[in-house]
Design a protein that fits this description.
The protein is of the alpha/beta class. The strands form 2 sheets. It has a 7-stranded mixed sheet with strand order 6-5-4-3-2-1-14. GO terms for molecular function: 3',5'-cyclic-AMP phosphodiesterase activity.
């Protein structure tokens, strides 16, 4: 499995800041933030599955545009995977005819451009031998992270989460874990905001990573624009022993 980072910023601004999206091989997206907009139309048309961590706009902003752009180029619907709670939010607040047309019934209910598929934490979805496993997360709306498992190695993406003991219980059971992509949205000077919004800051990230019992390369995502250097310096000062890297657009992982 090849995982390409399309976007990993906590916001936008300039040519290099794109919000969260990961392209797995050529046909799977994990989240659909603004990074998806850099794909060519031919690349968009190859996407069969979109796994959404949660309903916040920075993680699904491009989902309506994907379906609208390539729906008529495909012979089967794009399948959107998310928890039932997240799907209910997406149906009610995005594909509701007021914000965007309901492509789950366009051009017809029998042959739609979009299909919703509910998932449950811990229940793997097998896509031609590639497993996508929803993991626990703790956020202000229903949320999950994902394990991507090729059979040889795994990558874990936490999505947006505050402190979450249930996540580490699952991660520590992954014997072939190679990469951990974990959020750190705020600097420590905004710890109160991190706590209130169920995100992490460096000191909270340290507390979370002390629960990690597997060897893995750690990468930091969801840094807020304007605080990137400050937050990464605080991370280095706080958790340098984990040797975390800053996730980058177009970074490629092979598992």
């Amino acid at each position: 499995m090849k995982v390409r980072i399309l976007g990993c910023s906590g916001g936008i601004g300039g040519r290099h800041l794109r919000t969260t999206s990961l392209l797995v091989d050529n046909d799977i997206l994990i989240d659909a933030g603004t990074g998806v907009g850099d794909l060519a139309i031919a690349e968009l048309a190859q996407i069969d599955h979109v796994f959404i961590t949660h309903s916040h706009l920075d993680h699904l902003a491009c989902l309506p545009f994907i379906v609208d752009t390539v729906g008529d180029m495909r012979n089967r619907p794009v399948i959107v995977h998310a928890t039932e709670a997240t799907l209910e939010i997406i149906r009610a607040h995005v594909f509701n005819w007021a914000i965007w047309p309901d492509f789950s019934v366009i051009p017809s209910a029998e042959k739609p451009f979009l299909r919703f598929s509910p998932i449950r934490v811990g229940e793997a979805i097998d896509l031609d031998g590639r497993k996508v496993v929803p993991l626990p997360a703790n956020h202000t709306v229903p949320a999950v992270g994902y394990q991507l498992d090729s059979g040889h190695a795994s990558l874990v993406f936490t999505g947006d989460t505050g402190p979450c003991p249930e996540l580490w219980a699952e991660v520590n059971n992954i014997r072939n874990l190679r990469y951990l992509i974990i959020e750190c949205a705020f600097s420590d000077r905004e710890k109160k905001l991190a706590v209130a919004s169920l995100h992490l800051c460096p000191s909270m990230l340290l507390e979370e990573l002390t629960n990690l019992q597997r060897d893995a390369e750690v990468f930091i995502t969801h840094l807020k624009p304007g605080q990137i250097e400050l937050t990464m310096q605080e991370i280095e000062d706080c958790i340098g022993e984990f040797r975390p890297g800053m996730l980058q657009n177009n970074q490629l992982f092979e598992i």
